[in-house]
Amino acid sequence: MPIDVSVIVPVYNPGAYIQPLLDCLDRQSIGGDRLEAIFVDDGSTDETPALLDAWAATRPNVTVIHQANHGWPGQPRNAGIQIARGRYIQFVDQDDWLGDTALAELVAFADTNQSDVIVGKMVGINRTVPKALFRKTVPRVVIGRDPIQDSQTPHKMFRRAFLDEIGLRFPEGKRRLEDHVFVTNAYLQAKVVSVYADTDCYFHISRPDGGNAGYRAYDPVAYYRAVDEVLDIIDRHLPDAAVRDAYAVRWLRTELIGRLHERQIRALPRARRHAFFDEISRVVRTRYTSGGIGVATRPIRIGAFVTRHATAREWDRFARAIADITVAAARDDGIRVYLRGRELPRDAGMSVLLRRTVPRVADAVLADLGDDIALVPDGADRDVKPGTTLTVKLAVGDRSCTVAATPPGRRDRLVRRGRGLVGVARHRASQVLRRARSWRAARRR
């Protein structure tokens, strides 16, 4: 019987984390005669090579390749593709696993729809996965309408003949976003991309020991060169500006403005943090038009326009201000917004925040925005009931509070102001402490 699907797994020192994957492969409803598993051991130094050899010895359609370490999963995946016999190829990471019926259902769905790429529903275990993408099954994705770009990991099923036809393989060597390059090329050159959301197919795991390969530290210059490469692919295959903007907003949201707000980036020493900002600002200024930024959500849109005009130090002030914004609500009083404990005007727009934090570029940012966006959207204070938790969708991001029965008095306002100042002091002290630790670590090296 011909092999329907080849599961390719790059492996490096997974320890016990590989066992759930082995168990799920034994449980696959597609059957061992229609499935082959290819493990590419990339120079493991733990007990994994012996474990895989013993496991493969009793399973005829399991192959283990042992090779010297390449340090990144691109080359091992390519080595697996080279020997794969299946009509389809499913990539799986060593610490993830598949639903018991996933492969059988994905193959049947792909055959029905003549799919080149099939994205099975992902489930995150202690990590986030795209939500909107998997709300429904989509036999034929429309690029620019369906949010397929939200899933850039390689954990999908690909028609082997399609990969060979366009000559698609993973970039090799130690480099970031090799999966984005592969997946974006596949999405934009496929005749049919499908989303299968009827079954939980792929379980994406965040290891408690932090050992997932994607969590390694990285250099901002090399990283954003890789982002440029992905955007080049998008430009090449999506000449229509509206479609391109709808697709490319994912990188603006996740790799650019979203990255600047990440705790790990905010905690870096100033020089390294500013190196990230410089690269992100460059990409925003040179790769995204006002129209491309305009399709983003308000918080991302505002951040992008600030990044386009501000210096790294100005961005720091703006980002700290956003982090220090809180809200309060009371019955018959509506919503109050506070910046470091000091109340802002009820009708405050972005102009108030911009002129207090980045006055030099405030006019340029407001011109890009096109209007003075209200910090608190209209209607946010409706149905304010005491004791309930209220989520307020501010222009700069969501904030939550518990609704009080009465408005704050003078004492409450002073307490809030004091807490705001204490919070700022603690934040700045923690930054100084982290930077001192980084400096000491650098001296020891």
Structure, explained:
With 445 residues, the chain is an alpha/beta fold. The protein has three domains: 5-215, Spore Coat Polysaccharide Biosynthesis Protein SpsA, Chain A; 220-296, no CATH class; 323-444, no CATH class. 45% of the residues lie in helices and 18% in strands. The protein has 16 helices and 13 strands. It has helices spanning 19-27, 48-57, 74-83, 102-113, 160-166, 178-189, 220-237, 241-260, 263-266, 270-287, 290-294, 298-309, 312-323, 350-357, 362-369, 410-444, and strands spanning 5-11, 35-42, 62-67, 88-91, 97-98, 117-125, 157-159, 193-205, 325-330, 334-339, 342-343, 389-394, 397-402. The strands form three sheets. Strands 3-2-1-4-7-6-8-5 form an eight-stranded mixed β-sheet, sandwiched between helices. Strand 1, helix 1 (19-27) and strand 2 (35-42) form a beta-alpha-beta unit. Helix 7 (220-237) packs parallel to helix 10, helix 8 packs antiparallel against helix 10 and helix 12 packs across helix 15 (362-369). The longest helix is centred in the last third of the chain and has 35 residues, at 410-444. It is elongated and about 70 Å long. The mean pLDDT is 90.
Brief digest:
The protein is α/β, with parallel strands linked by helices. It has 3 domains: 5-215, Spore Coat Polysaccharide Biosynthesis Protein SpsA, Chain A (Alpha-Beta Complex), CATH 3.90.550.10; 220-296, no CATH class; 323-444, no CATH class.
